[in-house]
Amino acid sequence: MASKKATQLFHRYFADWIEIYKVNAVRKVTLNKYYMSLQWLRKLAPELKLSELNRRTYQKLINDYAIEHEKQTTMDFHHQIKSAILDALDEGVIKQNLTRKVTIKGKTPRKKKPKYLSQTDLQLLLRQLRLENELNWDWFILLIAKTGLRFAEGLALTPNDFDFHTQMLTVNKTWNYRSAVGDFQPTKNTSSVRKVQLDWQTAMQFSQLIKNHENEQPIFVEGRIFNSTINHRLEILCEQAHVPIISVHGLRHTHASLLLFAGVSIATVAQRLGHSSMTTTQETYLHIIAELEAQDSQKIMYQMATLM
Question: Is the pTM of this model over 0.85?
């Protein structure tokens, strides 16, 4: 006989799961994504009970979601729903991990802006920067390109976060730029609290730029900040440099891709970016990792051929 919880509607279980495990545990923007998944779950499977969950019904749920979403968005939906299902498995409410070997489909993706620049293109872009004697958005763009910080992490930087003796930058907060008032808020996750090493040139430049700033005040924030403002400036610079137009977040991807192509380990890149696990890094940069693995295979065959 099925337990009372097993006969519960799946979307209600998921709603309870969000309240128990996610409310006050993740940032508001992340929590809203869980609530969006809940809305889709109610829409696609309003009568589906926990006891009716199996690989077939779960695959149908994912397929139905994929009809109106691109593959990456479908993957994100799957990861969120899967987390709740694995907890239901731990609780003994369901008997098997029915999310294994699920097939992820999705609409043909729209043509998107490039996610990252090559090293040559980045160098061309940086040559267009107007790096004046006082901080401006071009200095912000340079810092993101050289550290891989998230947009909100860069906005939250204060003079106290810079240690010029060790050339270390402490990342332990973000700036809530979506608010009209604007204020500090926690990082995306605990792994995002980290120290990022600066190259000596950047450290010297910023030591002069921020020496007269108040220690606990953001160095880049003056009034209301809009993501579109910086992206527009970056678009102009990309056009001047005759390189593909990318977003500020694309600078973060560029930073990571350059490190991977330079042979920096996935573990180190994950730590520098503040990813919660290496899996996130591997999934985000799968295309680059595949290309590096192909190069490694050629190196292996070359080394083996020299043994005789």
Answer: no
Tens digits of residue pLDDT in 117-140? 999 999 999 999 999 999 999 999
> What is the C-alpha to C-alpha distance for residues 99 and 19, in angstroms, rounded to an integer?
22
The total number of structural domains that make up the chain: 2
Give all strands of the β-sheet with 168-171 in edge-to-edge order.
162-163, 168-171, 194-197
Same domain, 157 and 268: yes
Rounded Cα–Cα distance for residues 217 and 65 (Å): 44
Cα distance between residue 157 and residue 241, in whole Å: 28
68, 175: one domain: no
Write the CB contacts of 263 (distance below 8 Å, at least 6 apart in sequence).
Answer: none
List % helix, strand, coil for the chain (3-state, nearest 5).
55, 5, 40
Report the chain's terminal Cα–Cα distance, integer Å. 68
Cα gap 239→229, rounded to integer Å: 16
Q: How many helices (H) and strands (E) does the chain have?
A: 13, 5
Range of the domain at 243: 119-291
